[in-house]
């Protein structure tokens, strides 16, 4: 079974704040001491694992899902690094200002932290496969938006992008303008939404179904192929961790499959 290590007060220099990291180490890391492992970075880290020190209610249960898929031979073992969000999540996970909720666009500081501080720390202190085709980023809602932004501006770091119920309508759809051409790098991009994800939040109408479909079609129009891009609509799923937990086995199976054509 996997082991979860929690690092408190991990300092983020770009943001000037301490962070909590939750690192899930697969059993094979200890039983195969000469082996190096791919790494998946997940956002909203307090909601990621089934663990006594994680969120009180529903989580993604990413550790138990990973353990089961490994045992079934469906994926190879991955290290999962889950990063807790800071108190002002809207600003932290917003690459652009969103006046409707008073969010300052500090998302680029978080991406700076991921790329220039956290990933080097992981590569220096753990046996990791550091190439982009062995490095993924996965988040939901604004975390999904951040995953799409990070993967676009740093394709040399993140080859695998998981955008679960992504808030692509945020900041008047700026993510459409950021993705104005393919990255030119090997990539796998997973996107989905639940069929019930339509509601008002503050002064924003959040239609995840329509906006995510539009963004998928936008990426297809840029030339991304079926082996690079997957889009799923989950029937009767709403916008919460319980729904994302249910979808995670299929997400992991597609997004984390061994790289081809590298």
From TrEMBL:
Pfam family, one: Esterase
Domain of life of the source: Bacteria
Name of this protein: Alpha/beta hydrolase
Organism: Desulforhabdus amnigena
């Amino acid at each position: 079974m996997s082991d979860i290590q929690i690092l408190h007060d991990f300092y983020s220099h770009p943001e000037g704040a301490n962070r909590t990291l939750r690192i899930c180490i697969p059993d094979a890391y200890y039983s195969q001491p000469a082996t190096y492992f791919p790494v998946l970075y997940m956002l909203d880290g307090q909601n990621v694992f089934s663990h006594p020190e994680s969120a009180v209610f529903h989580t993604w249960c990413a550790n138990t899902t990973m353990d089961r898929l490994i045992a079934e031979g469906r994926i190879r073992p991955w290290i999962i690094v889950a990063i807790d969000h800071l108190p002002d999540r809207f600003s932290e996970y917003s690459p652009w200002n969103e006046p409707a909720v008073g969010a300052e666009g500090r998302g680029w500081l978080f991406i700076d932290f991921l790329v220039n501080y956290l990933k080097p720390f992981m590569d220096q202190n753990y046996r990791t496969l550091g190439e982009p085709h062995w490095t993924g980023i996965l988040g939901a809602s604004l975390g999904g938006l951040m995953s799409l932004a990070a993967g676009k501006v740093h394709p040399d770091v993140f080859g695998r992008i998981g955008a679960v119920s992504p808030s692509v309508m945020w900041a008047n759809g700026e993510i459409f303008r950021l993705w104005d051409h393919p990255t030119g790098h090997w990539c796998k991009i997973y996107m989905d939404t639940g069929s019930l994800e339509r509601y008002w939040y503050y002064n924003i109408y959040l239609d995840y179904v329509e906006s995510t479909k539009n963004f998928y079609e936008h990426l297809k129009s840029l030339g991304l192929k079926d082996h690079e891009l997957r889009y799923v609509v989950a029937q009767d799923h709403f916008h919460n961790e319980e729904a994302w937990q249910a979808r995670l086995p299929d997400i992991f199976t597609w997004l984390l499959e061994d790289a081809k054509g590298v």
